[in-house]
Write a structure and sequence with these properties.
This protein is of the alpha/beta class and 246 residues long. It folds into two domains: 82 residues, Elongation Factor Tu (Ef-tu), domain 3 (Beta Barrel); 142 residues, Nucleotide-binding domain of ferredoxin-NADP reductase (FNR) module (Rossmann fold, 3-Layer(aba) Sandwich). A seven-stranded mixed sheet has the order 10-9-8-7-11-12-13, sandwiched between helices. Strands 4-3-6-1-2-5 form a six-stranded antiparallel sheet. The radius of gyration is 18 Å and the shape is globular.
């Protein structure tokens, strides 16, 4: 008899906005991954890769997902309830992982693109590691899309070598009333961070994850300055296909 494919059960879910949500999944098999990698889940044969938010020591797989109205899978995932199951490929993949050979790490993300950075930082803190600097630039249109804002602020308190810079690109809209932090598109914060903190290509790894336009800008601008850039693009317009490269 053919063995049933691995599954994962929804054990918690959280609505972030009308089109952003968090799922926590309990896998039916031992599931290992390196912080920054992604897993592939599916329903009825339709599969998509999603970056993992969790640290490997956590008992569940946490995912931060955008519901694309005309997508083939995410609207169905959005309707899942606690107790429902999805398919889970048994191996995590991806090279968007921490390169500890570099002393400084500049992480630039938009909305759900923050997921692998949170995984990396959670693991770093859980292991009580030290000796590296982190600069995390987290961008969105609206403040409620910064789902890990509070957690990252706490991380910055727990890890003095971490600077967290959240930024919203539409500060005058009512949805952003009360916002007192960074404004502008997230890539606009890169050059001020580089100059203010003396980041150099020889000891800095750059990680860009999220909107393909942002990722392309970071890779072009910083690549031209000699920085090594790891990239992961979330292609909203192509039925949620994500293309990880490095």
């Amino acid at each position: 008899m053919k063995e049933a494919p691995p599954t994962a059960t929804v054990v918690a879910r959280k609505e972030v906005t009308h089109d952003l949500f968090i799922l926590k999944l309990a896998p039916s098999i031992p599931f290992t991954f390196t912080p920054g990698q992604y897993c592939t889940i599916g329903l009825d044969g339709i599969e998509r890769p999603y970056s993992i938010v969790s640290a490997p020591k956590e008992s569940t797989i946490e995912l931060f997902i955008e519901m694309v109205p005309d997508g083939t899978l995410s609207p169905r995932l959005h309707r899942l309830c606690v107790g429902d199951q999805v398919s889970l490929r048994p191996k995590a993949k991806g090279v968007f992982t921490l390169d500890e050979h570099f002393h400084t790490h500049l992480m630039v993300a938009t909305v759900t693109g923050i997921a692998p950075s949170v995984s990396i930082l959670r693991s770093y803190l859980l292991k009580s590691l030290h000796g590296h600097r982190f600069f995390v630039l987290d961008g969105a249109s609206y403040q409620d899309e910064l789902a890990y804002n509070a957690e990252l602020r706490q991380m910055a308190k727990d890890l003095p070598s971490l600077l967290y810079v959240p930024s919203i690109s539409r500060p005058t809209e009512a949805r952003n009333r009360g916002w007192v932090h960074g404004t502008g598109r997230v890539h606009q914060w890169v050059e001020p961070i580089l100059s203010r903190h003396g980041l150099k290509p020889e000891d800095t790894m750059v990680y860009a994850c999220g909107h393909p336009g942002m990722v392309a800008t970071i890779k072009s601008d910083l690549g031209a300055q000699g920085f090594k850039v790891k990239e992961e693009r979330f292609w909203r317009e192509h039925a949620e296909v994500k293309t990880p490269t490095a």
